[in-house]
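[audit] Reproducing an earlier prediction to check determinism. Same input, same settings, fresh worker. If the tokens differ from the archived copy the diff job will pick it up downstream; this log only records the rerun itself.
[audit] input (306 residues):
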Amino acid sequence: MVTTVQPRQRVSLKDAKSFSAFTNLVKTQERQKEVRQRLTAQLQTTLDVEKLLTIFYKEVQQVVQVGGIVYQMKDSDQLTVNLGQQHTHRCTYQLSSETEAMGEITLSRSKRFIEEELTILEGLFSTLYFPLRNSLAYRSAIMAARKDPLTNTWNRAAMDETLDREVELSKRHNQPMSVLMLDIDHFKAVNDRYGHSAGDLILQETAKIINRASRQTDLLFRYGGEEFLLVLNKTDHNGAQIIAERIRQGLERHAMKCGESNIAVTTSIGVASCRSTDTTETLVGRADKALYQAKISGRNQTRSGE
């Protein structure tokens, strides 16, 4: 039989004095103090959310048997951390302060949780609140610095860091990886005719259409001006061309409304796939050359950089 505790009462900062929840399931008072103090100290050592939850998971296992933890923060980037293995018996807690939500955490294992164990877990959550809140605030600041404020895509600095990593992973694990270089056709003419507010709207709508036509694991960057770069994980050249055409057709069919005007927008796309000899510069260079060929050949088309 599968049991799910979903959810228990909301756990908040008001519960911070619930450390006394350790009961006879912990063999001695000295052991209780040791685990609590170690957990409190270790949670102060990192601002990385996944590392923080890993520390919490390992220490929780010292007092309550837990097979796996799933943490979810439903912000714009859908943060999810999975630790251990997920099982059929679960308990879920909504984490919050008095002013903000801090996500949801689910603990699971192969046998039912008893009431005393749930009480212990709620006490342990008290040690997690302030470190988790600090980690989420730090993450938000880092994310904001890596995002383009107009289109909410990743910016050039984030692209440089990500591409280096993705190219290295592709070569190390012998997995395909491709990039698309996209340029909005005749963008300057749109700005000149309709104004910069219309141009901003087109950039925003274009980013949304690209995201809808790509996969959740793909990464979209604003390369500069009206250019975007899309990184396609585990995607060979044929797969990249299919996605490129889906994006191109999606933009071609979408009339963007600005005030009383419907503005037709198209895009030219260059496609390149990672080779064993590629660096980030050579990979992006081939995509850029393919984009140039698409533009001089009449625009609104996809060209290969192979």
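[audit] rerun output stored. Observation attached for the diff report: Residues 115-145 form the longest helix (31 residues).
[audit] end
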